[in-house]
Amino acid sequence: MVAVGGGGRRRRAWRWAMRAAASAVLWTAVVQLASIAGLFRPRVLADCGGGGGVGGVAGLAALAGEDTGAARLSPPALVPKRIYKSNGYLRVTCNGGLNQMRAGICDMVTIARHLNLTLVVPELDKRSFWADPSDFGDIFDVDHFINSLRDELMIVKELPLKLQLRTKKRLYSMPPVSWSNETYYLKRILPLARKHKVIHFDKSDARLANNGLPIQLQMLRCRVNFQALRFTPQIEALGRKLISTLQRSGQFVVLHLRYEMDMLSFSGCTHGCSSKETEELTRMRYAYPWWKEKEIDSVVKRLQGLCPLTPEEITLVLKALGFTKDTLIYIASGEIYGGERRLAVLKAAYPKLVRKEKILSPDELRPFQNHSTQMAALDYMVSLASDIFIPSYDGNMARVVEGHRRYMGFRKTIVLDRKKLVELLDLFQGGALSWDEFSDAVKESHKSRMGQPTERKIIPGQPKEEDYFYANPQECLGSNGGLRDIS
Length: 487
What we know:
The structure is a single chain. With 487 residues, the protein is α/β, with parallel strands linked by helices. Helix content is 49%, strand content 6%. It has 21 helices and nine strands. It has helices spanning 2-40, 43-48, 56-63, 98-114, 136-139, 142-148, 161-169, 182-196, 215-228, 233-247, 261-267, 275-287, 298-303, 311-321, 339-349, 356-359, 362-365, 372-385, 396-407, 418-429, 435-445; strands spanning 89-92, 118-120, 155-156, 172-174, 198-201, 253-256, 329-332, 353-354, 388-391. The strands form two sheets. The protein has a five-stranded parallel β-sheet with strand order 3-2-1-5-4. β7, α15 and β8 form a beta-alpha-beta unit. α4 crosses α9 and α11 packs across α12. The protein is globular.
């Protein structure tokens, strides 16, 4: 009886052990299947689901437009790739500063798509005044750029090896004719691309017309500008820190003070400069052979409204527009010509004057030092986020930021009428106008220059004189200021 009882216990123990092992295997399989299911769960469900991980709070924050680390764990699904027979490769060397190159890149994508070419990731200008060694991938997120446009065209990081070897010996290089329409590219450029297999544009600025283009080309320009050209994660992170710091202090104004050495030299604008400074700026202009205009009458140019306002002039304008002494002003610019001495009047009037160098530590800025385009990218982000944006000159950054702020809901951008302001400033400083008369006149002349919806000015045969597409991409703007469906 005892022996039989002991055998029963052993059998029961053996059955229990087998059941436990089977349960363990089953639970392991369930956990693994759940993990696999989680990987393939639709992103919308993952973002909106309850609990921790990618769902819950992180998902709601992502839907609300907030940037969280958890929300970035789930990558967006790739858009379907467009299949087409490529007519060749387009290589591009962009010229100018960050925003001149940015607009040029948008145009080059649009041209490559129109001609069914494969675009090589653009090369950036390294010969400009700043001699910035930054490559495309140092400023923009390359993979996002390629993947977000794959339903429109193929973009590659480099030419195939066979074509690399071929182009080292011989490369067909040219600057396209400025302000050209789609017919020029179809009739003149496409045959060249088919013949040479690789065509190189050695300039990208203003190579596509502002107006008269098919709506789909205009919409693609916007899609590249507002969606595909995302800054690198490093730039985005530091830019968000700048914005967050400024917003904690309340509303803030960005003043794009284009009073830098290169601008003054090449424009010939020397109002307020000493004779020694004027000589220095003139020497610099003559030292750069590709800047064709050498003899410039600074007085005439200023009266025509073609010069950036000086720090002293912009101080009077800000006061006249009603900005009080406690206004927080962020200066978006490179090094101001004349340094702290030229900013003294502006600082006295607006003590809460800051720059990125004041907000960020030297360690935070060190990776971006000596890279003017990367520093400009930080200013670009802050300019977009500001409550009011005021450029002292209508250069490339001013115009591209203006257009981007229109897209973001017609955010307030005060576009200064410099010709009118110079007239009023001279009258006031000469004693012909009282302060109240001057202030009233400045306010009156800028009522319709606050970034409201407006029709882009078209001047047939004079593309340089008409409104720039990227300052007012009206084809892409809905009634609420957002993009129409461009995907």
